[in-house]
Amino acid sequence: MAGGDKKNLIVALGLALAALLSGCGKMDRLQDLAQYKEQSSVQNHVQVDFCTDPAYDQKQYLKTIIILDHSGSNQNNYKMASDGSGAPALPPVIDTIYATDPTGVTRYGDVTRSGTLLNYLNGLPANNPLEPTRFFALVDFNSSVGTKPAVKTIPPNSSGFTSDIVQFFSDVQADSVAGTTGNAPDDGAGTDYLGALDSAYSIMNADIKAASDCAALPLGSPSPGAWCPAPGKQIASSYVIIFMSDGSPITDVSGIAIKDGKVIYVDGSGNPLPPGVVGTITMTKESGTDILGHVGAMVALEANKKFVSSVNLFSIYYYHAGNVDAGGQKLLRDMAKVGNGIAYDALSNSNIDYNQFQPPKKRIKYKLANVFVTNASVVWWTDGKLHADTDMDGLPDDVEKAWGSDPLNAYSGGNGVTDLVKYRAVAGGAYSAINYAAGICSGIARTVAPPGNPYVSSEPSGLNDCEKKILGDPSVASNSNPDSNADLIPNWLEFKNGIPFQFGTAPAVNVPNQDGYSLHNKVKLSLPINMPTGELLNYRPAVYDLNLVSTDAIQDCYKLSVSYLPTLAADDTIRVDVIERSELLGDNDLYRVAKKMFPAGSLNLYFNDWNNAAEKLAGTWNLWP
What we know:
By secondary structure, the chain is an alpha/beta fold.
């Protein structure tokens, strides 16, 4: 029995059954089986061979915080106890011979000592003020002495980073001789690790906030200040922390005093003890657990992947020969371990090579997020039937003829807006050639490509910037995205199928017809949106077969086969949408679109990768961004 005869028989039986049941009063209404739509499926075949885009090294700002211990042990230290606690040996011996860095040569070096801090800074090229890539901050720490602050920073007041390398070098050079003698660092008091780490965290946290505020500004707008060199651009920073100390985080030691260069013992009242009597030594020491927790909080800033590429803390324990604070040395090693960095030991007066404190390059690999293969020359319309769409504007040919637009020109009237957008904008009302350039789309540029001179498009999914504005998508005001509501369906495919695509609308995951197919799957499998799939006779969804052919650290390569695409003509145009995502792009996409017609007399169509010479020559693929 032929398909049409079979359908007629089913309809006749259904109507007879409905009449019978109606007469018996058993059912108020039986579904009219005549509404079932008969469509035909063609066993065509489309093959797409493609690879994700190659991985790349992330463009990033390098921001370095140098944290230097300025405690008194740099100038005048005691002999360490053998228990590794960082406490003095008893009886205490305090002398300049145990000083760890009296001239600052270990912490600062000088311009003539290769690789040291001052030599390193002096050798760096100045930043391009319009596009700086290197930023610095310095934190000096000890513990409070009277009114003297425990932390000093460059730039001052923990205000952030500077990209002025020349000025930073000059400030650090002055800091290296800021002591009372004028030729040594300003050192004194105890060793407050927590204060130093708090200051560094504040600098980083404020910097990340500034990067977010900068990226939220209109692209290309004037820079509001040094904190925002590239308004509208999302650029991640790699933070390097270099933490130098000569021992344990001991903020105070009581029970020892020095008079006339000699050690004396004191009790709690401050009175000297009798000769030969050893007093009690009391230390105030910060918790290693708290210190490692602070380091962990700094590393946790990496969770903001949009603006933080990496956080690495390198530690340096420097010491006088034969006088090792094993507890401080271990703590600094643990800090580097928690901080995803490396711990170094340095003997007093040795050179520390700052060239080694570089973050690892971060390679960003693209991942396939979604792929659609659809027929651009047909459209499922509101009647649940498949219609021809010769100009591929989403409005069926027969609807265009009845409405008054041109089925052979996607931009009837030459006003730069596709006929489907105009049709939806007037809710099917009378056709008119609206001058959008004088109204809602004033200020948006238009192309010179005929026909219709469409408006420019900041994304290639199929909607230009004027159309997205007409349709109420606010994302066109900034970096326009081909998937505005981030549901991995391109805007054009959603709009063509009558699904909201605008920023803030719900993703197409619901199943409105209770037929087991989400809106996403209906778009992907070329099924009608507005009717249950069970109401289609002799029609089957498109079939996808996606295979990973190869994978490595650079890219993944795929072979995609799609069959049973709906077709109405031998020369229909097939469209391929490939969506890639990466850690850096976040909610944005790397998006490619290709279009090709079936070859004459064939139901097989082949797309090669976008790097293929023939595909490049033919202009088969378009890329965004």
